[in-house]
């Protein structure tokens, strides 16, 4: 393996971590449209809180996908064709979710507005859920042939561990979204309702994290191959969640939001760490797709590195600036 | 290969690619073109300080935002479907094609999305100049996006700057700048950009025409000003597509002679060094014998088009077919079929070219009708407004026709002379999966397209003065005060 190959593995992990951190709370807000909001004005406020950002946040996924295609075409090809129907469902979810905000705004009757609100909420659940399923499958092991083509059946995709993974990612996104909402909506009944839900959800989330850890132990080789790192990551994830919980109780909402966001990032990094040096685990260990065989040529990686390391800081700068500009809280119309 | 209803996995994958890409590419040119028109309107507002231009910016901005939203969500499909449906393609040229796509996301798409958000929600927050800058950055960003996407497409049309890596059985990049230096890119990119001018401007003129048909006296000044800006953009666009299209034809004869022969319906060689070649207005090719059965010819015109001279010949596909077999049989075998769907390409090309004529004519008429000194009451010419109302769909027909020529004309290759379409498809995606995704994509696009038209119509009916619904208050959750607040509680 070359340094460039490892660098790009790390970069793709970072892009996915960025995606789940940023779009995670967008998904959470989407779910909260049905989970928290009770009036149309509350729904408006929820959507307004992510209005200027969700599109930019989603670009992290597009960039992660593009980076994968560019830097690891063999990974991209095997993963995307292998998870065809799951990714197709994710795409449909992203399509309907993406237009739902705009279309909802344009609907004239409460009935149709509610239809698009529902579409928004349902797709906001299914997309992170299916991503959770996909990543759980990738670390658990999938049937690959010599060319790297996957020929899997229903239970290869949906099994105990992948469902745990899916639920965990969706739940994390939901709580992350509520944390974001608590920041953006300062006071009032909506704020209080969010606060009540968050209090209940943290214990559930911790149970979910333990279940996920147990799943890693039972269904993957994480504990066998990298016991120390795995245990350390899991401890950090649980610790961050507990801190998020406690700071939330003390109404230090900014800290609560940040620490749970870091927990999400830690989950992504744990999965990528356990995956390394493979990019898709094979159901037969010798058939795993390896990083060293999955990347583009050294020449392309070099160019991609130069361009990315130049562009990413600029992108980050103007995205942060945009968040700063729209930092104001949203007020629910009466 | 799995055969059902006479369709193969390859057929379904191709139909799906055509469907998702054509649909996506309704909204790309519309967004870039409308972005430009809206940016010009806001520029006029900032310079002239005339509120009317601000109202125009906001009104057309709404349709722009709808189009952008659908363009974004259908764009994600584009990036994913190479891996999903064309995994062998992705492995073979990922080293070259992937970077173009990734750079597009990294340097262009982030920019568009973020600055569009700032523009959309920033009317009250920024001074006029900065707010204006956002729409220009968004529009330039989306044009920049198309540059990289077309760089990827240009590689498929005219692959340069690569070598074959036998260890991994793939093509690898040896010259990154060549991706942008490809002459194909500099034929395609300006042609596409000028096409976006037409999509945006004809929608503005069309919606204005429909509005004036509904309420002839209402907002006349508003729509006349809109038509004027759009007509100027359209005129520039028409001149642009004409010039770039002509240049493209000149190169095409050498780069992809089969495609050129198909666009002109040439089965046999015509003309020569000192001999003129006729051009056919209509023709029919028998798809089985590959012979042109009948055609209506105009003398000299092909020589003028292809050589900018009264004399000069062009090759027919019978001879090109022989040459391609000589050139490629060692690599791809004797069984390759180099003939193209000639009638489709021939008529797609004519639809595109004749639309260009219509664009020019209509934009001159529009500009003349709304010029300052004109005393013409355009609301009285209902039939003309109808024509403009319908003409807003024409750019999309022309653009689709153009892409059909470009993409179908590259067959049997996905990367010209390097990789065949049949060798590009994912081997492990089942017929059932593909059929499911085809049907659901189709239904989804029908819903999105229908809603898009319906909502644009609603924006139009609501008129320039409709209000939006969202309120905010100014409190900073990340301020030092917010961090302190928790401690007190």
UniProtKB/TrEMBL annotation, chain A:
Protein name, entry field: CydB protein
Entry GO terms, CC: cytochrome complex; plasma membrane
Primary location: membrane
PANTHER family: CYTOCHROME BD-I UBIQUINOL OXIDASE SUBUNIT 2, CYTOCHROME BD2 SUBUNIT II
Domain of life: Bacteria
EC class (word): oxidoreductase
Bilayer-spanning residue ranges: 6-25, 83-103, 115-137, 157-179, 200-222, 228-247, 254-281, 301-326
Pfam families recorded: Cyt_bd_oxida_II
Organism field: Weissella cibaria
GO biological process: aerobic electron transport chain
Bilayer topology term: Multi-pass membrane protein
Family: Belongs to the cytochrome ubiquinol oxidase subunit 2 family.
Enzyme Commission number(s) of this protein: 1.10.3.-
InterPro entries to which the protein is assigned, alphabetical: Cyt-d_oxidase_su2
Molecular function as annotated in GO: electron transfer activity; metal ion binding; oxidoreductase activity, acting on diphenols and related substances as donors, oxygen as acceptor
Phylogenetic classification of the source organism: Bacteria, Bacillati, Bacillota, Bacilli, Lactobacillales
Locations listed in the record: Cell membrane
Keyword terms: Cell membrane, Electron transport, Heme, Iron, Membrane, Metal-binding, Oxidoreductase, Transmembrane, Transmembrane helix, Transport
Automatic annotation (TrEMBL), chain B:
Record field: transmembrane: 22-47, 59-77, 97-121, 133-151, 192-213, 225-243, 345-371, 383-405, 439-456
Recorded superkingdom: Bacteria
UniProt keyword list: Cell membrane, Electron transport, Heme, Iron, Membrane, Metal-binding, Oxidoreductase, Transmembrane, Transmembrane helix, Transport
One of the record's GO cellular component terms: plasma membrane
Membrane topology, as annotated: Multi-pass membrane protein
Gene Ontology biological-process entries: aerobic electron transport chain
Subcellular location: Cell membrane
Enzyme class: oxidoreductase
Matching Pfam families: Cyt_bd_oxida_I
Gene Ontology MF terms: electron transfer activity; heme binding; metal ion binding; oxidoreductase activity, acting on diphenols and related substances as donors, oxygen as acceptor
EC identifiers of the protein: 1.10.3.-
Family affiliation: Belongs to the cytochrome ubiquinol oxidase subunit 1 family.
Protein name: CydA protein
């Amino acid at each position: 393996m070359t340094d460039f190959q490892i660098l790009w593995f790390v970069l793709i992990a970072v892009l996915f971590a960025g995606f789940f951190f940023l779009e995670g709370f967008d998904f959470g807000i989407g779910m909260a449209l049905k989970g928290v909001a009770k009036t149309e004005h509350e729904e408006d406020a929820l959507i307004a809180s992510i209005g200027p950002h969700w599109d930019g946040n989603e670009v992290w996924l597009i960039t992660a996908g593009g980076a994968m295609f560019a830097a690891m075409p063999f990974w991209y090809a095997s993963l995307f064709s292998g998870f065809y129907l799951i990714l197709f469902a994710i795409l449909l979810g992203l399509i309907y979710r993406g237009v739902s905000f705009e279309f909802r705004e344009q609907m004239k009757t409460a009935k149709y507005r509610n239809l698009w609100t529902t579409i928004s909420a349902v797709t906001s659940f299914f997309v992170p859920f299916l991503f959770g399923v996909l990543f759980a499958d990738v670390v658990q092991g999938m049937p690959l042939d010599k060319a790297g083509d996957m020929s899997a059946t229903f239970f290869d995709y949906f099994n105990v561990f992948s469902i745990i993974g899916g639920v965990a990612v969706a739940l994390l996104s939901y709580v992350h979204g509520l944390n974001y909402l608590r920041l953006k909506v300062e006071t009032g009944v909506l704020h209080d309702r969010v606060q009540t839900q968050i209090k209940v959800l943290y214990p559930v989330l911790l149970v979910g994290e333990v279940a996920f850890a147990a799943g890693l132990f039972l269904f993957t080789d994480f504990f066998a191959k990298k016991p120390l790192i795995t245990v350390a990551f899991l401890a950090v994830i649980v610790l961050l969640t507990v801190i998020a919980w406690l700071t939330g109780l003390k109404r230090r909402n900014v800290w609560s939001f940040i620490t749970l966001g870091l927990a999400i990032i830690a989950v992504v990094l744990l999965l990528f760490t356990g995956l390394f040096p493979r990019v898709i685990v094979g159901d037969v260990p010798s058939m795993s797709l390896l990083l060293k065989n999955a990347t583009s040529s050294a020449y392309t990686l070099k160019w991609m590195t130069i361009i990315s390391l130049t562009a990413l800081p600029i992108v980050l700068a103007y995205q942060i600036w945009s968040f700063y500009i729209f930092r104001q809280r949203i007020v629910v119309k009466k | 290969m799995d055969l059902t209803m006479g369709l193969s996995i390859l057929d379904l994958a191709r139909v799906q690619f055509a469907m998702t890409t054509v649909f996506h590419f309704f909204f790309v040119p519309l967004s870039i073109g409308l972005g430009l028109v809206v940016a010009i309107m806001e520029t006029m507002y900032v310079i002239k300080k005339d509120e009317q231009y601000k109202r125009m910016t906001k009104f057309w901005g709404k349709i722009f935002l709808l189009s952008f939203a659908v363009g974004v969500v259908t764009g994600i499909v584009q990036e994913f479907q190479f891996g999903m449906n064309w995994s062998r393609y992705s492995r073979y040229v990922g080293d070259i094609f992937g970077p173009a796509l990734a750079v597009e996301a990294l340097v262009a798409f982030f920019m568009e999305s973020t600055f569009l958000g700032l523009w959309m929600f920033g009317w009250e927050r920024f001074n006029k100049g900065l707010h204006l800058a956002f729409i220009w950055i968004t529009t330039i960003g989306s044009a920049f996006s198309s540059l990289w996407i077309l760089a990827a497409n240009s590689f498929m049309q005219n692959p340069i700057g690569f070598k074959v890596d036998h260890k991994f059985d793939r093509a690898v990049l040896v010259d990154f700048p060549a991706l942008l230096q490809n002459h194909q890119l500099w034929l395609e990119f300006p042609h596409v950009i000028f096409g976006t001018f037409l999509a945006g401007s004809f929608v503005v003129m069309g919606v204005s025409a429909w509005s004036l048909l509904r309420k002839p006296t209402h907002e006349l000044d508003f729509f006349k000003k809109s038509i004027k800006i759009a007509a100027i953009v359209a005129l520039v666009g028409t001149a642009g597509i004409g010039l770039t299209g002509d240049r493209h034809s000149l190169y095409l004869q050498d780069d992809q002679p089969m495609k050129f022969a198909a666009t002109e319906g040439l089965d046999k060689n015509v003309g020569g060094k000192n001999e003129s070649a006729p051009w056919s207005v209509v023709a029919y090719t028998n798809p089985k014998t590959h012979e042109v059965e009948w055609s209506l010819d105009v003398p000299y015109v092909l020589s003028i088009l292809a050589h900018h001279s009264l004399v000069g010949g062009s090759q027919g596909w019978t001879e090109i077919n022989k040459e391609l077999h000589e050139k490629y049989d060692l690599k791809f075998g004797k069984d390759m079929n180099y003939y193209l769907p000639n009638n489709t390409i021939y008529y797609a090309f004519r639809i595109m070219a004749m639309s260009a004529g219509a664009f020019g004519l209509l934009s001159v008429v529009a500009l003349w009708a709304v010029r300052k000194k004109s005393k013409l009451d355009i609301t009285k010419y209902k039939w003309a407004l109808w024509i403009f109302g319908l003409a807003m769909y024409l750019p999309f027909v022309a653009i689709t026709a153009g892409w059909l020529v470009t993409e179908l004309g590259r067959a049997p290759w996905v990367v010209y002379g390097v990789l065949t379409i049949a060798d590009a498809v994912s081997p492990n995606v089942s017929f059932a999966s593909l059929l499911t995704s085809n049907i659901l994509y189709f239904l989804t696009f029908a819903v999105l397209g229908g809603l898009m038209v319906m909502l644009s119509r609603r924006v139009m009916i609501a008129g320039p003065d409709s209000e939006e619904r969202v309120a905010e208050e100014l409190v900073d959750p990340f301020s030092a005060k917010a961090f302190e607040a928790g401690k007190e509680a």
